[in-house]
Design goal:
This protein is about 40% helix and about 20% strand. The chain contains eight helices and three strands. It has helices at about 5, 55-65, 90-110, 110-115, 115-120, 125-130, 140-150, 165-170; strands spanning about 15-25, 30-40, 45-55. Helix 2 (about 55-65) runs antiparallel to helix 5 (about 115-120). The longest helix is centred in the middle third of the chain and has 20 residues, at about 90-110. The radius of gyration is 18 Å and the shape is globular. One of its GO terms (molecular function) is phosphatidylinositol binding.
């Protein structure tokens, strides 16, 4: 294939967990994951599109289970998933580093980085709404509202066209 030579030199996505907060309503920790995706423009060096998504701890567990059977992938030990020490600040800091390491490890593995589980995890709500990434069917309108409220996109340059604007452009 003519593009095989580009595969090895491709820039990788970069991940950082910016904040860890306790959602008291749901009694669950929420992690703000910043994703920097490389964007190639002919007239410039590699630049990044940076956005953040909010993920609950269970989302990380689902990701772990979704890519855990990929050959050659060595993820952090399962002790990271303990909930007994969830209120210990030192443990939360250790867990944050472990989760960042997990994301970087998945990104470095060619198979895992292209998995549906990883794409689902990294997708912003706009990506899901635009159909760029599939997501589970919600059962009720109330579930859809909760899902949108619990997941946020803090994208630096994402744009959406409102349905009103799209229909008003038609003659």
């Amino acid at each position: 294939m003519p593009y095989e030579s580009f595969a090895g030199g491709a820039a990788k996505r970069v991940f950082a967990i910016l904040n860890v907060t306790l959602d008291v309503d749901q009694d669950a920790y929420v992690y703000e994951v910043q994703i920097s995706m490389p964007v190639y423009l002919p007239e410039s060096d590699v630049k990044y599109h940076v956005y953040s998504v909010l993920r609950r701890f269970n989302d990380f567990k689902r990701l772990y289970e979704g890519v855990g059977d990929v050959d050659g992938l060595k993820l952090p030990e399962y002790g990271l998933w303990s909930v007994l020490r969830a209120d210990d600040a030192a443990f939360l800091a250790q867990r944050k580093l472990g989760l960042e390491t997990m994301l970087k490890t998945i990104e470095e593995n060619a198979t895992a980085s292209r998995s549906g589980a990883f794409a689902e995890f990294l997708a912003s709500p706009q990506m899901k709404l635009n159909g760029d990434v599939s997501f589970q069917q919600l059962t009720t309108t109330e579930d859809a509202t909760k899902s949108r409220a619990n997941s946020a996109d803090r994208s630096s340059n994402a744009t959406l066209v409102a349905d009103d604007e799209a229909t008003s452009a038609d003659p």
